Amino acid sequence: MEEQVMETKKRPVFLTVLGILSFIGVAWQIIGGIMTMGAGAVTSAVTSAGQSYAEGLSSMEGMENVEGMDQAMSSLNEAVDAANKLAQNATLLGIINIVAALICLLGVIWMWKLMKKGFYVYVIGELAAPVATIILVGFGLGGMMATLGFIIPVIMIILYALNLKHMS
Predict the structure, then answer these.
(1) Are 85 and 139 in contact (CB under 8 A)?
(2) Tell me: the pLDDT tens digits for 62-102?
(3) Cβ neighbours of residue 122 under 8 Å, at least 6 residues apart?
């Protein structure tokens, strides 16, 4: 009988480092999701105060003649509206963040085991939260938040993509 020696692939050090960073990122994203769900009430109170401030400012005598006041008030009202959308969707965004983090976790575990399908699952998980933010909050404040939310995930996706050759 021939002895079959199974050769196990050794995970490259760089992929191990990426995995550890991803495990930390998943934990951070879950904490962020929980904080987002709790931030809805705070955001609502702040936007209410901002709305009151805007109304008080616009009703002040002589303010209508101040140069650029219309544009400033318009910008302030847009910011308050965006913050209201954020407050209204805070719980849903928090849940989406947590679910996206769990999807990422599954992908990272599979990539840790050198399974290529983990990369594709990871990509879906990483892009889900910023896309959901744009859809639910809009392109103003949501676009800015999503842009910031895309930076690190895109870097991680590129780094993992460079290591796909080590996965099967």
Answers:
(1) no
(2) 556 656 666 766 776 777 777 777 778 888 989 999 999 99
(3) 22, 103, 104, 107, 108, 111, 157, 160
Domain boundaries along the sequence of the chain: 13-59+68-166
User: Residue 65 gets which letter from DSSP?
Assistant: G
* Cβ 103 vs Cβ 119: under 8 Å: no
The model carries a pTM of: 0.75
Task: Looking at 59-89, list the stretches that DSSP marks H as alpha helix, in order from N- to C-terminal side.
Answer: 69-88
Per the document, the length of the chain is: 168
pLDDT tens for residues 41-68? 666 666 666 666 666 655 665 556 656 6
Q: Which residue has the tokens 């290591």?
A: 163
